[in-house]
From TrEMBL:
InterPro entries: Aldolase_TIM, Enoyl_ACP_red-II_put, NMO. Nitronate monooxygenase that uses molecular oxygen to catalyze the oxidative denitrification of alkyl nitronates. Acts on propionate 3-nitronate (P3N), the presumed physiological substrate. Probably functions in the detoxification of P3N, a metabolic poison produced by plants and fungi as a defense mechanism. It comes from the Bacteria. The gene is fabK. Keywords: Flavoprotein, FMN, Oxidoreductase. One of its GO terms (molecular function) is nitronate monooxygenase activity. It holds the Pfam family NMO. This is Probable nitronate monooxygenase.
């Protein structure tokens, strides 16, 4: 399936991997790129030198293009923004903020810049600032989210900008990809399904929580403080939501959750840790290689879209 996004990025399939904090390291990024999608290393809250090392390790594993996601709330965002230029990275996605201040530096280095947005306003601003495409990310997504759903956000962003739009949030099979294309998207970003990939270094307990999740197991913490984060319900989210409803400050709650994503991803503490995942977790039922996932999703999407034309 050729689209403006596959052409822009030089990839075979219109699938990019979410730049998930702690999850999207070099094994996963290289595996997604090797399978014909665009793999991404998640900058998360990591220092620039850690990301430099990940980039070099990914380059040893694939000669295909891969990108880096710069998480803009990170204290190291300035650092990571420079490292991607120094390491000759060709594609950058950004999350959790406005990447405007890095745009000139990245464009001058020939980097394709793809901000992740959760609103039409930011999509338009990013197009004006020189973005090459945008990811329109619906509230079904895991992690830090906006308010609009994928079904409502994607067509509105498609109507508002001329650059290609990549749909994200709630997509984990060929039906979701076909639906996103019907809404006008030219590629999709997939996160949660890749968390359970064989090449993903996430703790087995985390993978099993996603594989066993039901449709209603998703919840959002931090809404009242303007920092909504979607994850799977557990003891941590119950405590967080209780304290949030009692009016505890954002700072106190941040203290409670500090480091809890790492605790779940690396140590497998899915009781006290934060198990970030999208609402589509309920549909994900097995571990597969990235190639198996991508081939299966593309075959299903292509068959559906052929019938729809
Ligand atoms: O960034 C994401 N998803 C993320 S980042 C992350 S790391 C984290 N961990 C704990 C707490 C908070 C973050 C986990 N998941 N997705 C992209 C995304 N960006 N979703 C929503 C937005 C967004 C929201 C507001 C982008 C811009 C924005 O405002 C921009 C402005 O005008 O400043």
């Amino acid at each position: 399936m050729k689209t403006r996004v596959t052409e822009l990025l030089g990839i075979e399939h219109p699938i990019i991997q979410g730049g998930m904090a702690w999850v999207a390291e070099y094994h996963l990024a290289a595996a997604v790129s090797e399978a014909g999608g665009l793999g991404l290393i998640g900058g998360a809250n990591a220092p620039g030198e850690v990301i430099r090392d990940y980039i070099r390790k990914a380059k040893e594993r694939t000669s295909k293009p891969f990108g880096v996601n710069v998480m803009l709330m990170s204290p190291y965002a300035d650092d990571v923004a420079k490292v991607v230029v120094e390491e000759g990275i060709k594609v950058v996605t950004t999350g959790a903020g406005n990447p405007g201040k890095y745009m000139d530096m990245w464009k001058a280095a020939g980097i394709k810049v793809i901000p992740v947005v959760a609103s039409v306003a930011l999509a338009k601003m990013m197009e004006k600032a020189g973005a090459d495409a945008v990811v329109a990310e619906g509230t079904e997504s895991g992690g830090h989210i906006g308010e609009a759903t994928t079904m409502t956000l994607v067509p509105q962003v498609v109507d508002a900008v001329n650059i290609p739009v990549i749909a994200a949030g709630g997509i984990a099979d060929g039906r979701g990809i076909a639906a996103a294309f019907m809404l006008g998207a030219e590629a999709v970003q997939i996160g949660t399904r890749f968390v359970v990939a064989k090449e993903s270094i996430v703790h087995e307990n985390y993978k099993q929580r996603i594989i066993k999740a039901k449709d209603i197991d998703s919840t959002v913490t931090g809404r009242s403080h303007g920092h909504p984060v979607r994850c799977l319900r557990n003891q941590m989210t119950r405590e967080y939501n209780k304290l949030e409803s009692e009016g505890k400050s954002f700072e106190e709650l941040e203290y409670l959750t500090l480091g809890t994503l790492r605790k779940a991803v690396q140590e497998g503490d899915v009781t006290h840790g934060t198990v970030m995942a999208g609402q589509i977790a309920g549909m994900i039922d097995k571990e597969q290689t990235c190639k198996e996932m991508i081939d299966e999703m593309m075959a299903q999407a292509e068959a559906l879209l052929k019938g729809a034309r």
